[in-house]
Design brief:
By secondary structure, the chain is α/β, with parallel strands linked by helices. The chain has helices spanning 18-34, 57-66, 84-98, 112-117, 125-140, 174-182, 195-212, 232-238, 240-253, 276-279, 289-303, 320-333, and strands at 2-6, 39-42, 71-78, 102-107, 145-148, 153-156, 166-169, 187-188, 220-228, 285-287, 307-311. The protein has a single domain (2-346), classed as Alpha-Beta Barrel (TIM Barrel), CATH 3.20.20. The radius of gyration is 19 Å and the shape is globular. This is LLM class flavin-dependent oxidoreductase.
Length: 351
């Protein structure tokens, strides 16, 4: 299993120090590669007052330039908001600059205001998304395109060709995981739902792979939020206030929770109802190194992920210095428990 980090490029409330925040992300990226992580990932959203990353391409180029061996990628690039030929070309260049390390996770988007920003109809997001996936896949394969769909008419090919990129398809529903399997793509999960929901969707994803004949190309790439400290009490004090606010935002904005498999949701009506001891179970990877290892092994047993992509620092914190300590400790005391040797997947021992 590989280990990655998803950075959260946010500076609430109004992005006043977003330049500094990005310098901290790049510094953390260097440390993560030194400490044995296998991949570095970034997200995308639009019109967020805290400076949330609206386009991944420049950031992917920066990550390619300052690293040597780790995967670089997105979880998630919002494919419907960009012309798929541009996505194929931008992705090809990011892959070339990184020497074949691009892992481009794409998704449909959740927020109506983002569709309005680009003059798009959210009711057409599925067909636009699926046409985009097909076009990117065929363009990266070097095809001379002659494509005529509901949304795009394309004739020609992209150049230069990428080296060895991967296209991942994000999903937060049963139809979504079936789509990822139909296109033969790895599936980056969300970080929100618990282990039972992840197991349920993983079963449908792998069953769909058998149905479509794509099983040999599928992989579950698990996203989780977490923090390693001295104890659960330490994590609750240092980290929990930041993650609670983040999860509450998505709980309110993205009504895709699988209620029958999320018993903790009963009685939750405001942020204060998210209690650490209940919310962390079978969901977060937190606590001492031994606590984190035990949680990861539970997910391994349930869904056998190919990748575990962690988010440590949230929009409001903890601090950059605390983030670096967490990355180093996770690399030194958690990742080695899942290596057959200290140099598996090109990892190096943490300093």
């Amino acid at each position: 299993m590989k280990f990655g980090i998803l950075f959260r490029p946010q500076d609430p409330p109004n992005a006043a120090s977003i330049v500094q925040r990005w310098q901290e992300i790049l510094a953390a990226a260097r440390v993560a590669e030194e400490c044995g992580f296998d991949g570095l990932f970034i997200p995308e959203h639009h019109m967020m007052p805290d400076g949330y990353l609206p386009s991944p391409w420049a950031a992917l180029g920066a990550l390619a330039a300052i690293t040597e061996r780790v995967d670089i990628g997105t979880t998630i690039h919002l494919l419907p908001f960009e012309h798929p030929v541009h996505v194929a070309e931008h992705g090809a260049m990011a892959d070339i600059l990184s020497g074949g390390r691009l892992r481009l996770g794409v998704g449909m988007g959740n927020f109506p205001a983002e569709f309005e920003l680009f003059g798009l109809d959210a009711k057409q997001q599925v067909s636009r998304f699926e046409e985009g996936i097909e076009i990117v896949q065929r363009a990266w394969a070097g095809e001379e395109l002659d494509f005529h769909g509901k949304h795009f008419d394309i004739k020609g090919r992209i150049t230069p060709a990428p080296v060895s990129p991967e296209l991942w398809i994000g999903a937060m529903s049963e139809p979504g995981v079936r789509r990822a399997a139909r296109f033969g793509c790895p599936w980056p999960t969300d970080p929100l739902h618990n282990i039972e929901v992840m197991r349920y969707w993983t079963e449908h994803y792998r069953a769909a792979g058998e149905e479509y004949g794509t099983s040999d190309r599928l992989a579950v790439n698990l996203l989780r939020d977490g923090w390693v400290g001295d104890s659960l009490e330490d994590v609750e004090r240092v980290w929990w206030p930041h993650i609670r606010a983040d999860h509450w935002f998505y709980f309110k904005q993205v009504p895709r929770w699988v209620a029958e498999r999320e018993p903790f949701l009963e009685g939750v009506t405001e942020e204060e109802d998210f209690q650490f001891d209940r919310h962390r179970r079978d969901r977060l990877i937190v606590g001492s190194p031994d606590d984190c290892i035990a949680s990861i092994r539970a997910f391994q047993q349930a869904i056998d992920p190919a990748y575990l992509i962690m988010s440590f620092r949230m929009a409001s914190g903890p601090s950059h210095e605390e983030e670096l300590r967490c990355i180093r400790r996770f690399g030194r005391e958690v990742i080695p428990a899942f290596r057959t040797n200290r140099t598996e997947e090109g990892a190096t021992a943490a300093p």
